[in-house]
Amino acid sequence: MKDDQHGSLATADMRVLEKRITVSRRAFLKGSGMAAGVGALSAGSLMLPARDALAAEFTTLGAATGKTLLVMARDIFPHDKISDRYYMLAIEPYDAKAAKDPALAKLIGDGVAQLDALARTRFGKPYAEVDTEVQRVSLLYEIEHGAFFQKIKGDMVTGFYNNKAVWPFFGEEGSSWEKGGYINRGFDDIDWLPKA
């Protein structure tokens, strides 16, 4: 989702693609019950969706809030080829911070409750369960000027895009000073600009 010149969310040319979800071994084991020492897996625990397993790591704010934040982060900054676990790395600090900061816990809790209430009114289900990205984005338009939305959006810019693990997805090679800079490492090899 890109910002236009007025800071509003833009939906032009939005593609709706099925997102391939991956889950870490730790999240899978935690979601399946094996992390607690359970030796046998039930069929039901193996069917736990990856987003639910990732969101289960939110012990302070709760799994439902974690899942909503994860889906919201994807809707604000959609990158179809980047899995949920990278988004999770950007939002999971909220859980630890909320345990120490009641004001932050209230902001997030109230914001998720407002978003879920809007989703239930319009679509009959909580935000994270709304079927399409286009429908969810329409809900984000309604809260985009509020403190909750601005907090998540602002933190995602640094929490997500400052993660060195996602840089290769965007073609960013990372720091170059220790390798002599970019001068001899392709600083001028842009081949997609028209020739002058």
Mean model confidence by pLDDT: 78
Shape: elongated
Report the oligomer: single chain
Low-confidence stretches: 1-8, 32-48
Helix content class: 40-55%
Give a short account of the largest sheet.
none
The arrangement of helices and strands along the chain is HHHHHHHHH
Write down how many β-strands occur, each being a DSSP E stretch of 2 or more residues: 0
Distance between the termini: 32 Å
Total helical segments = 9
How would you describe this structure to a colleague?
This protein has a domain at 55-179. It contains 9 helices and no strands. The radius of gyration is 19 Å and the shape is elongated. The protein is mostly helical.
Can I get a quick summary?
The protein has a domain at 55-179.
SSE topology:
Elements: H1 25-32, H2 43-46, H3 50-55, H4 63-76, H5 84-91, H6 93-100, H7 102-123, H8 133-143, H9 147-161
Key structural traits:
9 helices; disordered N terminus; single chain; 196 residues; mainly alpha
